[in-house]
Amino acid sequence: MKTVLSPIKLPPSLEACRIRALPPAAYYIADFISEEEEQAILHKVETAPKARWRQLTHRRLQTWPSDLVKDTLLDAQPLPDWLENPVVSRILSIPVSDGEPNIFASSPHRRPNHVLINEYPPNTGIMPHKDGLAYHPVVCTVSLGSSLCLNLYRSKEDGALDPEPLWRILQEPRSLLITTAELYSGYLHGIDPISTDVDLSEQTVANWSLLRSASCFQDGLNQRHMRISLTYRDVLKVSKLGSKLGPMFKRP
To answer: What value does the mean pLDDT take over residues 64-74?
Structure first.
């Protein structure tokens, strides 16, 4: 039996929710899914088979439909319905601007075909990095459970990483963050391994004007709890070899 879900009002275009403090281009939709949808997805994540989880040093993750091998997706199976709907269907329904197609219109498969699910307990982060050349340069991240700040960095002229982030994006539960183009290829992103985000304000948070509840952070603090992220991308190279070879290349 399907759950009756609360209606979500999406923006008329991504341009309406562009983060204007950032280089081209990033978009932030605070209310992308409902609380009921958030809980339904969290339940699916939490009840996934143990073999789906990969344990890292301080956190764990899932990959759907399978891991990449040499930057290639070996399992051409579609994403499960709970990862397709409502997220993918909504992403594809929003034009970039009036009269322009959705954000995946120019990607090889015209839709995301891979999802990385990351679990971030408090005091857990990820080092600054780029997503690399395996993907079309569009990243869509849905946040569940808790808020945290994503930091954006740039390398110095000598190639070393500037340790101070240029910008911070505050990602609230049920929000969608899309990064593309120069912001995807020219900058690194990471998450500090802290329990509380501090010094939050209109001057320090790039998407402050787009937040659902900026008033919740008026004291400049965000106490982190368990946060789950769903990262949707289109893997450029897809092979059906994995399906032919059986389950050895994919998780249950």
So the answer is: 93
Quickly list DSSP for 109-165: TSS--EEEEEEE-TT--EEEE---TTB-SEEEEEEESS-EEEEEE-B-TTSPBPSS-
- Domain regions of the chain by residue span: 18-243
From start to end of the chain, where are the E strands? 26-29, 54-55, 60-64, 68-69, 72-73, 114-120, 126-129, 138-144, 148-153, 167-171, 176-180, 188-191, 196-197, 222-223, 227-233, 237-238
d(CA 93, CA 70): 32
Q: Does residue 83 have a pLDDT over 50?
A: yes
Q: How far apart are CA 155 and CA 190, in angstroms?
A: 13
Topology adopted by domain 18-243: Jelly Rolls (2.60.120)
**Nearest 10 degrees: Cα torsion 130, 190, 81, 106:** -40
